[in-house]
Amino acid sequence: MSMLNARSVLVTGSNRGIGLELVKQLVEKSNRPEWIFATCRDPEGPGAQALKNLAAKHEGVVINPLDTCEPNSIKAAAARVTECLKGAGLNLLINNAGIVRPASMEDETPESMSEVYRTNVIGPMVVTQAFLPLLRKASQESPRKGMSCSKAAIVNISSDAGSITNLLGWEVGHSINYRCSKAALNMLTRCQSLGFAEDEILCVALHPGWLQTDMGNFEGILAPVKVDEGVKEILNTLACLSEKNTGTFVNLDGETLPW
């Protein structure tokens, strides 16, 4: 089995759920990244305590304030990461931060649509733009051929709920704002894959599965998969992705999903 061998990884929305578990499992790997940049909106708030406890135990886990809805916050985070890397590039950017505002077709509002779209689509776009110089640097300086998450990659955490073909969980909740935002994120990923192809930066949209997180458990229903089990599969899949996968939409097992 291929191994993820990235020197540096950045995860947005890492104070809870999938993001926090990604940081936990990355730091426990035998060939763990030298730098793990864990970002969230409010590192000093009570919602980030678990992340702070984790960082206190492990050298190289750097907590970075980053609000994906605030361009100035994103620019400042990119500057801090650039300083930490001391001339090296960033191998793997995981755009994980996301929100949902439960609503039916009748109850959906322009305000919630706009709020969710700003976080789930515009956020990953602007974050990627800010860290693109570091991703390009990692790609240019890597001896690896082709594309991989160990070389230079953008992984956008999407959802099968945004698949126009599958509409995962429609019978459970409509969540129009979330579904539309993830469909748009998939298109953004496809565009990124074309735009950054010459840089040999792998770009993929990934459905993480229906996991037991604050977002995954809703409407009184417990998600079917534990977050640690799902993230373990995600990391195994990231290790196996190549240029054959760039510009695609995959699940946590690496299988291609329909748009």
TrEMBL record:
GO terms for cellular component: cytoplasm. Coiled coil: none annotated. GO terms for molecular function: oxidoreductase activity. Gene3D superfamilies: NAD(P)-binding Rossmann-like Domain (3.40.50.720). PANTHER family: C-FACTOR-RELATED (PTHR43544:SF38), SHORT-CHAIN DEHYDROGENASE/REDUCTASE (PTHR43544). Belongs to the short-chain dehydrogenases/reductases (SDR) family. This is C-factor-like. It comes from Podarcis muralis (Wall lizard).
